[in-house]
């Protein structure tokens, strides 16, 4: 995506691998534009290493394809300082961990509210509480996203509520942050440097003896995510 079509806005958050900003991409019309999230890859690595990690993450996201429960990569661009930027689908609900923590103490037996309007669903959730059906919708959405990645022969490597984003409704939870992801048949040694700071609390016991992370590790991490879900993050 050419840089002149991209306008950067306020910060949406940051992580180990970079800063995430809200942005707008202009289309071919005079006033048409799309709201997006822009992930800027910055850190301690050299510029060549940044590009390598950026290219790997974008390649994995593009390989994942399109699914309502997986965050889509729309393209890439370059920042004025030359650093790479990934242009991602914008999930207006923010990350699941923050939402759960904001909803602590608010549980109800009412029917689920999967159709929260974007921008107001979080307030509705805090005010009226989350039901068992809401928890099931979230868990099912994440499971569908992970099942899609499995069909695409991808290992995510960092399944946790902080890496699940919420779209237009609770049913549209999207698996995101592919910084540790890889193709299943890709050698793990390529990711040795990335795994210098792995999320150990979400990793299965066998990882600590074999130092090997497979799809089975994603299943274990999903179980930890379910615990995060019922304990409100």
UniProtKB/TrEMBL annotation:
Keywords associated with the record: ATP-binding, Nucleotide-binding
Coarse class of the protein's main subcellular location: membrane
PROSITE patterns to which the protein is assigned, alphabetical: PROTEIN_KINASE_ATP, PROTEIN_KINASE_DOM, PROTEIN_KINASE_TYR
Reactions this protein catalyses: L-tyrosyl-[protein] + ATP = O-phospho-L-tyrosyl-[protein] + ADP + H(+)
SUPFAM superfamilies named among the record's database cross-references: Protein kinase-like (PK-like)
Example of a GO cellular component annotation carried by this entry: plasma membrane
Protein's UniProt keywords contain Metal-binding: no
Membrane topology: Single-pass type I membrane protein
Segments forming domain Protein kinase: 6-233
InterPro entries: Kinase-like_dom_sf (IPR011009), Prot_kinase_dom (IPR000719), Protein_kinase_ATP_BS (IPR017441), RTK (IPR050122), Ser-Thr/Tyr_kinase_cat_dom (IPR001245), Tyr_kinase_AS (IPR008266)
Biological processes annotated in GO: cell surface receptor protein tyrosine kinase signaling pathway
Residue sites binding ATP per the record: 39
Superkingdom: Eukaryota
Pfam families from the UniProt entry: PK_Tyr_Ser-Thr (PF07714)
UniProt KW Nucleotide-binding keyword: yes
One annotated GO molecular function: transmembrane receptor protein tyrosine kinase activity
Compartments, record wording: Membrane
Gene3D superfamilies reported in the protein's UniProt record: Phosphorylase Kinase, domain 1 (3.30.200.20), Transferase(Phosphotransferase) domain 1 (1.10.510.10)
Protein name according to UniProt: Protein kinase domain-containing protein
Organism for this UniProt entry: Petromyzon marinus (Sea lamprey)
């Amino acid at each position: 995506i050419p840089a002149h079509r991209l306008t950067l806005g306020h910060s949406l958050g940051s992580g180990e691998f970079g800063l995430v900003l809200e942005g707008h991409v202009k289309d071919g019309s005079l006033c048409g534009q799309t709201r997006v999230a822009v992930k800027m890859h910055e850190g301690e690595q050299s510029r060549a290493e940044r590009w390598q990690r950026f290219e790997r993450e974008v390649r994995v996201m593009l390989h994942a394809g399109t699914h309502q429960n997986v965050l889509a990569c729309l393209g890439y661009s370059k920042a004025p300082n030359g650093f790479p930027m990934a242009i991602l689908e914008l999930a207006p609900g923010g990350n699941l961990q923050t939402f759960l923590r904001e909803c602590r103490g608010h549980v109800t037996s009412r029917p689920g509210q999967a159709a929260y309007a974007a921008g107001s669903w979080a307030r509705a959730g805090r005010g009226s509480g989350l039901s068992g059906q809401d928890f099931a919708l979230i868990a099912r959405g994440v499971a569908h996203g992970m099942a899609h990645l499995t069909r695409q022969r991808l290992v995510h490597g960092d399944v946790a509520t902080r890496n699940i984003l919420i779209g237009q409704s609770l049913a549209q939870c999207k698996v995101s942050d592919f910084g540790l992801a890889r193709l299943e048949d890709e050698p793990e040694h390529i990711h040795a440097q990335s795994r210098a700071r792995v999320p150990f609390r979400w990793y299965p016991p066998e990882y600590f003896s074999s130092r090997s992370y497979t799809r089975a590790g994603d299943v274990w991490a999903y179980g930890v995510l379910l615990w995060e879900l019922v304990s409100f993050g």
